[in-house]
Fold:
Amino acid sequence: MSALLALAALLQAAPAAPAPTPADPVAADWRAIPDDELLVMTLAGDRRIVIRLAPRYAPVHIANVRRLAAAHWWDGTSVYRIQDNYVAQWGDVTEKKPLPTGVVANPPAEYDSPRYDAVTAMTRRDPYAAKSGHSADGWPVAGDGQRGWLAHCYGMVGVGRDMAPSTGSGAELYAVIGHAPRALDRNVALIGRVVEGMEYLSSLPRGTGTMGFYAPDQTPTPIVSIRLAGDLPAAARPRLEYRAADNARYARWIQGRENREPPFFMVPAGGADICNAMPPVRRVP
Structure:
């Protein structure tokens, strides 16, 4: 009896769960990310990075990425450039590995699109665009009233390219690991966002060569494999969800990002950069 009384007292003393707020999502706000929109990169040391693809914004580049993954093209390549406060870049450092059949060597310049599909709006004007917000399916977007584009925020993944007219095949990719380099917006194709394992890229040793490329005395980080989630065994596939932005709860969440509340934040900012309000992604509970 004494044990039951002790348990009852413990339960009674346990702090109550916080009351839900208008910014909290409901179950229906979480939507599954399809397997063919998840790219799984495994580095040496069993370090796994998951990239969510954005096929609506760069369809030809992402078709290339899917073909490269299906052909296991990245296996045995490396992360060979880590520029501090800028990007981590990977692919074939020799630039001699032939591309698989069907990969378009120089796709259209998928840097922006003729529509701006944000369903939210940030309070303050974006310094790089007339407006910015989030798409219904959780992408940070900017626009000028006529065209729209993905924003170069932390964790976003882009396509390395040479000088124009090169647009990059998608074989060389990079992830933003520092302050958002928004000047790259509309100058490079963005194909997705790192949604898990970002720490494995951002913590790699910095390159000591020009622009953060690894010098001859440095060892690039080997890539074991890069696969679409759908090509992995079911038990090994990441199960992730994005938070839908097309509802009042998400709008309240944005307000909270723009105006942090006491007790720690005593002075509200009155706004936030789009890159300080990155759409939430979570593992399926």
Summary: Helices lie at 2-13, 59-70, 198-202, 248-258. The first strand starts at residue 30 and ends at 32.
